[in-house]
């Protein structure tokens, strides 16, 4: 059962921290807590303040960095069209700005692709990789791109409300939708419409069509990797998890019961427990003498 009231999410912008980007854009970011660094990557439909509702236990143990994507929420894109590579490089820019040499990287939904590509481009900067409700496949890109094109068509035909109505019963699990009823639907819809524009969603979806779900990119991952899915996940099956685990050199998986595509909404405690155990295990290994790490 979820321990966060999703009808009353805290979505306030509490700081005015911003990183200036090439081309005139900027990134809004939040930096809180102390300890090993965990960087949280938004998907295209949530903004940085949303993470505060699902990371209170993590904040007590770790330093958490989150930010709005460059054309999302309180961030701005600059003058040029946003590319998927921009999102990957923005992670690098933000870590450099904050003086962070190494981070645990958490991606959710489409930002699992940002996390994957960042880890493959800058493996020395990633202590561990957490992929939550993956949007991409270990078998190739076709299905994701077909879904993305259908979401773009919905957006063009009926604006952000029609897109939300399409996504809501897919993203959230049966238990959440039925127990939350109209109150949860309306609260999440109102937040969605207030925080996200047709233009920013469209541009991000179009950018995502330019990146591929190449299985070899999973095989190239060097950092230890944790996959977290809900058992009500609409994109991945159990067999896809098995295929990904066979491809990634050092990977484990956790499935959260009664949870969907964004399992931190359904089970914040289970989500945080899985990440805490993953980070603590890796930190313990790093604390060992170099010779003992390979035994």
Automatic annotation (TrEMBL):
Q: Which PANTHER family does the record match to this protein?
A: AB HYDROLASE SUPERFAMILY PROTEIN YCLE, MONOACYLGLYCEROL LIPASE
* Domain (AB hydrolase-1): residue spans on this chain: 48-147
Q: State a single Pfam family of this protein.
A: Abhydrolase_1
Question: Which terms are listed as keywords in the entry?
Answer: Hydrolase
Q: What is this protein called?
A: Alpha/beta hydrolase
Q: Output the superkingdom of the source species.
A: Bacteria
Coiled-coil boundaries: none
- What's a Gene Ontology MF term here? hydrolase activity
